[in-house]
Amino acid sequence: MATKILVTDDISQAGIDILSGLQGAEVVVRTNLAPDELKEAIADADALVVRSQTRVTRDVIESAKKLKVIGRAGVGVDNIDLEAATRRGILVINAPDGNTIAAAEHTFAMMISLARHIPAAHRDLLQGNWNRKKWIGVELRGKTLAVLGMGRIGTEVAKRAKAFGMTVLGYDPFLTEERAQSLGVKRCDLDTAIREADFITVHTPLTKETHHMIDAGRIAQMKEGVRIINCARGGIIDEVALAEALEAGRVAGAAIDVFEQEPLPMDHPLRRCPNVVLTPHLGASTVEAQENVAIQVAEEIVQVLRDDTFEHAVNLPSLSQRQKERLAPYLALAEQLGLFAAQLAQGAPSSMTVRYAGDASDPDGGYLTRTVLKGFFSFQYNGEVNYVNALRYAEDAGLRVQEVRESRGRVYTNEVEISVATDNGTHRVTGTVLGEYGPRIVELDGYPIDTPIQGILIYTRHEDRPGMIGRIGTLLGDRDINIAGMQVGRRETGGEAVMLLSVDKRVPQDVIDEIAKHPGIRLVRAIEL
Questions:
Q1: Cα torsion 128, 130, 131, 135: sign
Q2: Contacts of 101 (CB under 8 A, 6+ apart)
Q3: Rounded to an integer, what distance in angstroms lies between the CA atom of residue 249 and that of residue 243?
Q4: Is the pLDDT of residue 522 over 80?
Q5: Among 106, 117, 281, 427, which one carries the catalytic annotation?
Q6: Tens digit of each residue's pLDDT (9 = 90 or more) over 72-127
Q7: Beta-bridge mates of residue 528
Q8: What order of strands is seen across the sheet that includes strand 47-50?
Q9: DSSP reduced 3-state for 495
């Protein structure tokens, strides 16, 4: 029986040719499918290739009886239900490198068009007018640009801005001072960046942390007359708040390529604003980028279907059978520890030491390090990080990673420990796998503790004195936050102690701030796993 490869979005013919070259493959191209048509078409497919238009939902995935791999010809996998695919054992791969330059160049095209009123002046000229004074713009030279998100695309935008004589402010939780200096960028926090910038461009993934990162409150902090660009993901900017600020004149202009709802509805408030430049999600729409991502994802799919090694898996590492057998119990532990450490440490990381002990100290443990880094950087970059490119994310962030292997752990025989140094200090978390109980934390910042690595947690470091736990519990109770479990660790009576509370729902930041104000509280973190 032929191997069916279903392509449901337009991709470059170069990618189609590579897929067709797979022996025994039948490449079926069907675009613009309705959900029911997609479920019918995918039922007997071995591979699916999409761009951003096709929505690969749980229902679609559950309709696929033979599907082995989903390939996204691009970076973001927002349109693919990763959890459903992983549960069904379906690989999801992407093409993370192919459209970086295209997206950076489109961002700059939007910035220049905004600064010089090019689209509006063009329309005015076509209507028979010659209004040179009406369309006086501003120069980029000497202006301050805030780049929110210093990943691959943000870095390329920063380089181009420097060439135009702009001062560049870089905001990214993983941007170190050393890397910022090497790029000629001034590292700063989000509030400082948006407060000091003349132009603001966003290049973060869309996560629960970055959704409406630019809202009415943040817009109110900006300079009057600021100009805002979004060629990253719809939803990072509150579009209604932006439209109101544009109409009020507080924001001089905006250039937007991506929207929360696409296609952009006809009654959307941004359509009514004269001082905007709007494009229909063209960031990756160059001949070169489309060919690059199509070739990259097609080559990966062929490798997967041949059972060869592959690189850009979003939801599964490439491991030999021997490696899978040895490391399987520790993969979930390593990723969860990494995600925990990212939220515990906070601040720009400069170094990380990963210690393996016992069975986890197998020489193939480098895969575990990738998994630790995947968890660590996923907190900020979400679905962009996979088991292969996690090392590059560490490289790009200037994070020095060291591995240590020991025959036996300090608490349990088999352990994985992560120590992270940031500009806010050093934190350490140790975990193990306890049979049917699964991954657990057994030591935290040097304090013994025993708790599952799951759910929503509140971590505190505090003075060990009577009433401390009760006051925190009362505060949470007053906010209708139920405590499901509690673990306390200390070295001596009356000294310093740590506590991990498992709670039933997400903890608002103002609750964390209130806990931090309690006398004797030295550190508090909300952690979601």
A1: positive
A2: 156, 288, 289
A3: 10
A4: yes
A5: 281
A6: 998 878 899 988 887 787 889 999 888 899 999 999 999 999 999 999 999 999 99
A7: 456
A8: 25-29, 3-7, 47-50, 69-72, 91-94
A9: coil
Amino acid letter, 403: E
Q: Which pairing describes strands 447-452 and 439-444: parallel, antiparallel, or unpaired? A: antiparallel
For the chain, the first-to-last Cα distance in angstroms comes to: 42
Asked if residue 280 has a cis previous peptide bond (ω within 30° of 0), the answer is no
Element (H, E) at 352: strand 349-357
Q: Which of 179, 203, 233, 355 is catalytic?
A: 233
Q: Tell me which H or E stretch contains 488.
A: strand 483-490
| Of 230, 276, 280, 220, the residue nearest 250 (C-alpha) | 220
Place 233 in a pLDDT band, splitting at 50, 70 and 90.
very high
* CA pair distance 380, 329, nearest whole angstrom: 25
Q: Residue 372: CB partners within 8 Å, gap ≥ 6?
A: 334, 335, 337, 338, 341, 352, 354, 416, 418
Catalytic residue list contains 506: no
Residue 262 pLDDT: 92
Bridge partner list, 353: 402, 419
User: What's at 478, amino acid-wise?
Assistant: D
Catalytic annotation on 262? yes
Query: Radius of gyration over alpha carbons of the chain, in Å?
Result: 25
- Token duo for residue 215: 């809202």
DSSP 241-301: HHHHHHHHTSEEEEEE---SSSSPPTT-GGGG-TTEEE-SS-TT-SHHHHHHHHHHHHHHH
Q: What is the DSSP letter of 25?
A: E
Residue 367 and residue 96: Cα distance in Å, rounded?
A: 20
User: CA quadruple 471, 475, 480, 482: dihedral positive or negative?
Assistant: negative
- Asked whether 283 and 99 are in contact (CB, 8 A), the reply is yes
| Nearest partner of 349 among 247, 405, 417, 420, judged by Cα | 420
What is the percent of the chain with per-residue pLDDT over 70, rounded to a whole number?
A: 97
327 token code pair = 């490391």
Round to whole Å and give the CA distance between 109 and 164: 13
- Spot the catalytic one: 178, 209, 262, 325: 262
Confidence of residue 329 (pLDDT cuts 50, 70, 90): confident
What band does 319 get if pLDDT is binned at 50, 70 and 90? low
The DSSP string of 374-385 is: HHHHHHHHGGG-
| pLDDT class of 314 with cuts at 50, 70, 90 | confident
To which residue do tokens 């990380």 refer?
352
Question: Which residues, in sequence order, are CB contacts of 413 under 8 Å at separation 6+?
Answer: 357, 358, 359
